[in-house]
Design goal:
The chain has one helix and ten strands; from the N terminus they run H-E-E-E-E-E-E-E-E-E-E. Strands 1, 2, 3, 4, 5, 6, 7, 8, 9 and 10 form a ten-stranded mixed beta sheet that branches. The protein is elongated, with a radius of gyration of 26 Å. A hairpin with a 2-residue loop joins strand 1 and strand 2 (about 55-65). It has about 180 residues and is mainly β.
Length: about 180
Amino acid sequence: MPITLSSQAVRRTALAGATVALSVAVAACGASFDAQTSKPYQAAEGTNAQSGGIAVRNLLVLASEDGKGELHGAFVNTGQSDDKLVSIAAAAADAQNTSTEQTGSVTFTGLKETDLKVGQSYTIPPAGGTPVTVTGGKPGQMLKVTITFAEAGPLTTSVPVLTTDHYSPSPRPDTEKEG
C-alpha cells in the first residue's frame, strides 16, 4: 500500500528541506580559508600598538582645520610589573614620509608622567583631568609619534588625525556654481 502524505505534510517536508539547504549554503560562505571572520580586524578609529606589557588602544588626535587638537586613547598594562608613561612626542622625520604624514612641527603638551599599574588602564584625556593638546596635526594626516615608558621599550607608531566630530576628512564639494 503506497504512503500518501497530506498537502500540509508535503509543505512541511519541503520547507524543512529548503531550510537545511539554505543553512548549508550560508554556512559554506563563511567557512573558506578567506572567510572574513578569520582575518584580524580593528574596529577602532585610532591606532593599536604594543610595547612589552603595555598595550596602546585607539590612540588618535581630534583636531580642527587650524591644527589644534587633543590626543585621545588608552594605555593598558597587561604586563607583570608596574610601569610609567613618560612622554609622547613627534617622531624624528625620515625620508619615507607619505603625503598623509605630518610635514611641519607637531607638539604635544599637557602630558604628565603617569603610573601604569598592572591590570589597569589609563585614558587620555583622564576623566576630569587636563587634556593633552596637540598642535600642528591637521585632519587627514597621520602623525608619527614616539611614546616613551619607564620600563617598556619606546614605541614609534602613526596616529590618525580626525576632525573634532570623529570623521575623517573628505573632499569638500565645490559650493560655488558657475552661472
